[in-house]
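Why predict the complex rather than its parts? Because the way molecules touch one another can change local conformation, and only a joint prediction can capture that. The input here totals 318 residues.
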Amino acid sequence: MDSVLRAAAVYLILLIILRIAGKRTLAQVTVFDFILLLIIGEATQQALLGEDFSIINAAIVIGTLVLLDIGLSVLKQRSEALDRVIDDSPVVIVDHGKLLRDRMDRSRIDEQEILVAARELHGLERLEQIKFAVLERSGGISIVPAESSGKDS
Amino acid sequence: MRQPGSSAEAQLGLPEYRGHTTAEKFAFALLVVFILAAIAGVFGDGPLSQSTAASGDGQMRVEYQRFCRRHAQQLLDITVPTQAGANSVELRVNAEYLRRVQITEIFPQPLQSTVHQTGLLRFATDGSGGTLQIRMHLEAQHAGSQQARLSAGTQTVDFKQFAYP
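Output of the joint prediction:
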């Protein structure tokens, strides 16, 4: 029982912390972020297993985490409000070439990151060539090119 | 354009969509049952696992876990009757059980502990009679069933545990 409760508590804590950290934190992983993730993983492992390294305990912890994740995804599917609370919603950050600064600041995104996404995804060079840029729930930036972006010219 | 009567899967050369298979449903149900069993204590540390064994007249009692896990901490709460006027009480633990577990901590500290044919622990008492509460922290060293026999004076308590790997 203790293992199930520990796994549930850790799942909830990670859910809250990663939600607070925001979408961009995991989407753009720097070397430091990567190290931080490893440290988080190590700390989580300690909390999950304690001093019980038996196979049955590992099976209980994994089973609990998977079951909670399935349960939460079913609940999110049924409740849009819960879905928004847990996963947030996509945010438009460029509207017809115009940067929406307040939204960018809140999401900790700068202009360069949008231009990188525009170059990588569509080979666009300037903001005016972007119709919409959207910060997706996954943390990635998707770009809708302006019809007259002229990228082929 | 899609051929009439053919599915998208067929058009794309994919296997036919079958929804959740019986095997998937069974596996999911098994996972739910597994976690519920873990909460109940089938794999140690829960209401189904916690048990009490007592001597014939009920004076000596041992609270233990029926199910435990290898290399994980578990507790034995032992109640031993003491005699008025005696300043110590001896607790014996069978050799087979001692071979299968490692005692990591004992409270109160025994005055003396020896292991020969059986393990012998001698605890100080205040001589007023009544009972002495002993708490042992131990770890199972081997997976499988283990038989314990604890005795103090004429009182003997037998119990069985199962250690999961």
